[in-house]
Write a structure and sequence with these properties.
Elements lengths: L8 H4 L6 H8 L6 H15 L11 H22 L5
Helix pairs in contact: 2-4, 3-4
Length: 85
């Protein structure tokens, strides 16, 4: 799947209405390191209310952030149970 024309996801986040961005939101491993790092930092800031500017910039980015937060919580539970993922 290809991206439709939209502002650069590195500066504007995953775009609504773009099939490729929607794929990235579902399969976070498909994101490049820079996008994944920014998404992770925004997710942490948003979940901790550290930065109101870290709200999802699109519905697509919001889906990706919720998925990433779920993964983060699963890792936390595994570590608390003594499992090192």
């Amino acid at each position: 799947m290809t991206h439709v024309f939209h502002p650069d996801s590195h500066s504007h986040g995953l775009a609504d209405g773009c099939p490729r961005c929607a794929e990235h939101a579902e399969d976070l491993i498909s994101l490049d390191d820079d996008n994944l790092t920014v998404l992770y930092r925004r997710t942490l800031a948003f979940e901790r209310d550290d930065d109101i500017a870290a709200v999802p910039r699109s519905d697509t980015e919001g889906r990706a952030m919720r998925k990433l937060n779920r993964i983060r919580l699963i890792l936390y539970v595994l570590r608390a149970a003594g499992v090192e993922p």
